[in-house]
Amino acid sequence: MIRIKARAPTARGAVLPMVWGAVAVGYRFGCPLAQQQGLGARILTSAVFFAVGTGLIVHARRAPLRELRQARRVARAAQSVVLRPLPPRLDGLNLAAAQLSAERGACVGGDLYEAIATEHGVRVVMGDVRGHGLSALGTVAAVLGSFREAAHDEPDLTGVLRRLDRALARHLRERARAEHPAHGAPDPDHPVAEEFVTVLLLEIDRAGEVRALNCGHPWPYRLSGTRVEPLTRVEPLPPLGPFPLPAALEARGCGHLGSGEFLVLFTDGVEDARDGRGRFFPLPQALRDVVRDHPVSAQAVLGALFTALLHHTAGTPTDDTALLVLRNERNPARCNALAALRPAKPPLFEGEPAAWPEAQ
């Protein structure tokens, strides 16, 4: 845990006020001009005491400003560790991501994302912790830390999601004990018992096939040419935290991400952003405006969306927002060849189709 400690006043910090005080006292009792009652002497005395007062005020303000700069440096360091920047290229995918905290002065909010290249394909997580600002940072760290390990260890997305669920439950139990040391288990009436996290897991293999598991998170949009459509319209599972995961759990096939196509992942703070008249941010229309300009990179789509979002909210969003854009830049011929060689998935039981039909 990173802690920000206020530094105790040092002898060096007390020297300047003492010097200013000595100057004022020395002038008042040691300078002959200070004893005179003439207009010029009074003006000079007032100027001396004004300069002393100004110096003391400037000195008093410098210490809080130093502490504020130190706190911001620590917050930026925490952001780089917990919500580290994504690489621009990852196993043939072009990536761009950014988040904006609704809490003034905070660098990290309650949104989380990560993308990792594994032997199973590129695995991506996007999530949203209940609440926002620095209070949600511990939950973000617990979920992301678990994902970074499980993404490499688990052969399928189901195992990854179950690992995230266990990590979240363990984190909430530890928080409950820390906040209520008299209780051996989380108090059901305590806010910790009501915490939840929405999580979207994606896996994109070398052939561009997309599989997903969704717990209460908005589905991403697929951008293909000038077409904008949801990745799927299937109802997601409940968020992690309040309810246990179902015993039978299977990643859902979401079709193929072709060369040059985009996926746009986002948190609900994007769609729920309102303007001064209370209107929600029209994300699908904003995406159509973006693809009309034929973007060539994930960075271009991300920049255009954030510009539109900040314009819509007049630069003051009321909830944490995060966007992650990825573009398939793999060679089309190679992707098609890998897709043709990919074996069909066997059914789980007799009569089940080999693959989930894509929602229309």
List its salient traits.
disordered N terminus; elongated; 2 domains; Phosphatase 2c, domain 1; disordered C terminus; 11 strands; 360 residues; 6-stranded antiparallel sheet; alpha+beta; 41% helix
In short:
By secondary structure, this protein is of the alpha+beta class.
Structure in words:
By secondary structure, the protein is of the alpha+beta class. It has 2 domains: 14-76; 85-341, PPM-type phosphatase domain (Phosphatase 2c, domain 1). Helices cover 41% and strands 19% of the residues. It is built from 9 helices and 11 strands. It has helices spanning 11-30, 32-35, 39-82, 137-153, 157-179, 268-271, 283-292, 298-312, 332-341; strands at 89-90, 93-100, 111-118, 121-129, 197-204, 209-215, 221-224, 227-230, 252-256, 262-266, 321-328. A hairpin with a 2-residue loop joins β3 and β4. α1 (11-30) runs antiparallel to α3 (39-82), α4 (137-153) runs antiparallel to α5 (157-179) and α7 (283-292) crosses α8 (298-312). The relative contact order is 0.11.
Q: How many separate structural domains?
A: 2
Please, what is the CATH homologous superfamily of the largest domain? PPM-type phosphatase domain
Class by alpha and beta content: alpha+beta
By CATH, the architecture of the largest domain is named 4-Layer Sandwich
**What's the gyration radius in Å?**
28 Å
What is the CATH topology classification name of the largest domain? Phosphatase 2c, domain 1
What would you call the shape? elongated
What portion of residues is helical? Answer: 40-55%
The helix-strand sequence is: HHHEEEEHHEEEEEEHHHEH
Strand content: 15-25%
Low-pLDDT regions: 1-9, 185-189, 344-360
CATH class of the largest domain: Alpha Beta
* Mean pLDDT reading: 79
* Side-by-side strand order of the widest sheet: 1-2-11-10-7-8
Main beta-sheet annotation:
6 strands, antiparallel
